[in-house]
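Pilot study result, target chain (420 residues):
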Amino acid sequence: MLTVEEALQKILDEVDILEAESVPILDALGQVLAEDIKSDINVPPLDNSAMDGYAVRSEDTRGAGEKTPRYLKVIDTIMAGSISQKDIVPGTAARIMTGAPVPGGADAVVQFEHTDEAQNKDASGQPPARVGIMEEARPGLNIRKAGEDIAKGTIVLKKGTVVRPSEIGLMASLGYSKLKVIRRPVVAVLSTGNELVEVDKPLPEGKIHDSNAYSIAGLVKRCGCVSRMLGIARDDEKDLLSKLQQAQDADMLLTTGGVSMGDYDMVKDILARDGEMVFWKVRVKPGKPLAFGKIKGKKKPVLHLGLPGNAVSCMVSFELFVRPALLKMMGKKNIAKPVVEAILENDVKNDAGRRIYDRAIVEKRDGHYYARLTGPQGSGILTSMALANGLVLIPEERKMVNKGETVQALMLDWNEEVNV
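Predicted structure:
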């Protein structure tokens, strides 16, 4: 039986980064750049004002102060997006708004607050024809130079960069409407079992709604991938094979159930017979019956992970093994969930001889992380996942971990509510 690390490595060894595609910049959120991005323009394109104020010649403001203003003739008002046709010559100034190009002859901008404009507006609120400058301006004051942010010809983003909102805004500022990125994996999700009923159907006695397909599809989407739900395959070889054929053009197939020791657990048997079985069973709790291999695809073999049927085992297996594989497919380098050291607030017994991942609520108090279990930890108790934001790791060699001991907690959710 493989360790968690051995099983994950075998999966990652079979994963290739997918090919690139060109998508609209907003659709590229969370994807990885497939090429370097070079700027064909300066950003900003021209010297522009960083403040609302007056564009001046700095030498015209020598000695200026509140009691010794230097008076200049106002020759123009320059709005953002417009270019003045008038140069600033000795004894003149131009009103200028934030972002407006600095007119010729000016080498500084004095903000309104350091002028007497407010006191000298006429009855209609119009600015004065002459303004008093009440601070001495140094050359370059409140001016953003052309190319200050990005110089023409420079590489602004390197291949392999994950596209975030800031990268999208940056691309927009450079005039990009599309980006070349590693495409999103298409993941087929198939539930198996006679006991399952679709969520919108009446629930007969002895049956259960199919929750696994939805939790797994949600996790797939959360990774930034495309989920394709294939429905439910009954415990019948013909039905199962028919469903598996629908996954032949996917990048990965995830099945839930059918991989343990029951008489009708056929997924692993079909995988071993008609595909390629790499391994079955991992030394972990929950999630021991995990099958990994390949099925026949239309163009290339499709990676297949047979997840356990129990709801918690299914989700924990996804976090440990599927999520890293999908992120690698997308070209991402950081594929591990964050892990923190936390003080355990429960006694935890390990009588399984396997590594345990118990569901926990992790909080930061007084500079330390604390982890308390969400309650009963049965592999079918889905509420234990709904309440958790982390998984507490109990080593396989430890038979008991006591309250107050420090453990590792793998964070399922990492946000400001945890790190307070």
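One observation from the pilot: The chain has a mean pLDDT of 92. A full batch analysis is planned for the follow-on phase.
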